[in-house]
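Job type: complex structure
Entries:
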Amino acid sequence: MNEILEILTQNARITPEEISKLTGQSVTAVKNIIKKYEKEGIIVQYKTVINKELLEDSRPLVRALIEVSITPQKDVGFDYIAERIFSFPEVKSCYLLSGDYDLLVEVEGENIQMVSNFIASKLSPMSNIRRTATHFLLKKYKEDGHILRKGKQRQRLNISY
Amino acid sequence: MDIAKKVEQLKPSGIRLFFDLVLNMKEVISLGVGEPDFVTPWRIREKAIFSLEQGYTSYTSNKGMIELRRVICHHLQHRHGLKYDPEEETLITVGVSEGLDLAVRAILNPGEKVLIPDPSYVSYPAVVELAGGKVVLLKTDIHNGFKFSAREIDKACAKGAKALMINYPCNPTGASYTRKELLEIARVVERRDLIVISDEVYDELTYDFDHTPLSSLPGMKKRVIYLNGFSKAFAMTGFRLGWACGPSKVIAAMTKIHQYTMLCASITSQMAALEALRGNNHDVLDMKKEYMRRRRFVVTRLNEIGLDCHMPEGAFYVFPSIKKFSKNSIEFATDLLKKKNVALVPGVAFGSTTEGYVRISYASSYENLKEAMLRIESYLKQ
C-alpha cells in the first residue's frame, strides 16, 4: 500500500504538512496524491473508531450476524439478491462466502425487536432466500484490528540508556 | 565496607541525579528511553507462556540451547551469508550487555588498550576498565555524522591497541557504516592486527542501505567477535537475550567466564527467541517502517526549531547539538524537564567530549513526538 495511505489508515486526522515531514515528500505532492485517491474512490471516507462500550450515556446498539442461503438466479448469480439486501441501511456489511451458506449479513438496530423485525419482515420473505440463521452479538473483543478495552499502559522506565 | 578501587574509580556519572529526577516524575513525555515502544509480538510472548505450561523451567547447556544456536546460525547464513558453527562458534548470552563484558574479559590483559568510539554506549568504557584495560577514545562529531574513519583508527593505533569496539547502528547517535566504509575499516584492522568487538544489535533498524556485518567481509571472520541480540529487532529488551559468534577459541574462553558467572541464559527467554527467529518477520518490517517515518519527522522538526541535527542511518536515536542554546547538557536537560516536562538524555552520559549534545529517542508514539517537539520549540523561544 502507498505510504500516505498507510499513514492515513492509522490516523485520518493527520495533516498534509505532517505527512510531508513523515515521508519526505513536499506538502503539495502529498495534497495532490490524497486528492487523486479521493477522486478515484480509493479513499472512501475518513472515520473515527469509537469504543461504544465505554460511552456511558449511549444505549448500546444491537448487532446480529445473519447467515443467508440463497438460490442463485440465472445470469446475475448472487449479485442481484445481494444488492437487494445490502441496500437496506440497517445492513452494515454484507459478504459472499464459501461454505454452508452464501451471504453473511451484519445488521444493526437499536434493540432486539428492531433487528428481529427487520429479519422477519424484510429479509426472510425475500424471494430466492431459502434459509436464514441469526446470531446476536454478545460482546465485542476486537474489531478491525482494534482491541476494544481500556488498554493497560505498559510500563517502560521513563529513561534508560 | 571497603569497595574495590577499580569499582570506586568507575565514572560515577553526574547524570545519576538527573536520571533519578526523571524516574520519579509522573507526567513526563520521555524521549529518553533506550528501548522500543512496541511490546514483544504476541506470537513470541505466547510461545514463552506455552513453554512454562509445558514445564520448561530448567537450566540449559552453558552455551544455550543447541536448537536456538542452530536457528541463529541458519538466520545469519540466510540473512547475511555468514557461516558460523552452532556448536563451537556460538554462545547465547544474557543480552548483548553480557556479551560485551565476556568479549572484553576474554581477550584483555591488564593495561592493554581498546579503541572506543566517542560517544559510545555507556557500558563500553566501563567493561574495559573493569577488565583492567585502557580506553583510547576515537572522537567523532556531528560534522562527520558521528563516524570515525579508517585513517583515524590507524592513527589511534600508533601507540598500540589490541582491540576496537564498534557499535553500528550506534546508540546514542544512530550513525551506521556502509559496506564501503567497513571495507576501509577492515583493511586497517588487518594491518594493525586488531580484534574487533562488533555490537550490531540495531542491525535490523538500518534505513538507508543494507546492514553489512563486519565479520562477513574478507579476512574479518577470524578477527571479529560478532554480538547481536533480540532486544531491538523483536522488542524483547526484558527477556535479556543475545548471542556472540566468533572464532571457536574466543567463544570457548567467553563460555568459560559465562559458565562461572551466569551458568546459562533463562530457558523461557531462549524458548521465546526460538519463536522470534522461526516465525515471519512482518513485525520487524512494520516496526522499521514506523521508525523510518518518525526519524524523518524528528530530524526535520529539530532542524526547524534550531537544534542542528544530522540524519542518522539507523537505530531509533538522533543526537542533535544544543550548543546554540547551552554549554551544559545536564543543565539543559534538567531545565527542559522542569519547565516543559520533556525528558531526554544529556550527551555527556555517552562520553566526555560530547558535551553540547543530547540524545533523543524516537521510540515513542507519533503523538508524543509531535507534542514534545512543540514543547522543546516553546522552551527554546523563551
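Summary: The interface with chain A takes residues 19, 22-23, 25, 28, 30, 32-35, 37, 39, 121-123, 171, 289, 293-294, 296-297, 300-301, 343, 345, 349, 366, 370 of chain B (CB under 8 Å). Residues 336 and 381 of chain B are 12 Å apart (CA to CA).
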